[in-house]
């Protein structure tokens, strides 16, 4: 008859457990992309006028239904990038050190 030893492990907080789960299931890139889209909707206020979004290599490409809104947001592009990155850094679900999908470097409005 074999005996098994039960080893006590250090208790982990929910943040650490969720972070480990996201990394082990390789969900970080997809989740980060969705968080970038949520940051765009929240920071720009143009979620309802956004037709398509695409994010790759730090560049967010956004198609808008209003040319007036596109012009106004184009004037605020640097501030939008700064505010979106601040939003993402405060987001608990955003994996900050993911090599595939990181912070926003540029926004292209179409």
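Q: What amino acid sequence fits the structure above?
A:
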């Amino acid at each position: 008859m074999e005996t098994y030893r039960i080893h006590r492990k250090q208790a982990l907080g929910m943040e650490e457990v969720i972070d480990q789960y996201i990394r082990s299931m390789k969900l970080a890139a997809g989740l980060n992309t969705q968080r970038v889209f949520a940051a765009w909707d929240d920071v720009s206020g143009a979620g309802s006028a956004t037709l398509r979004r695409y994010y790759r290599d730090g560049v967010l490409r956004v198609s808008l239904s209003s040319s007036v809104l596109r012009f106004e947001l184009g004037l605020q592009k640097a501030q939008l990038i700064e505010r979106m990155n601040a939003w993402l850094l405060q987001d608990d679900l955003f994996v900050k050190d993911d090599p595939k999908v990181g912070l926003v470097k540029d926004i292209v409005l179409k």
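Q: And what stands out in the fold?
A: The longest strand covers residues 50-56.
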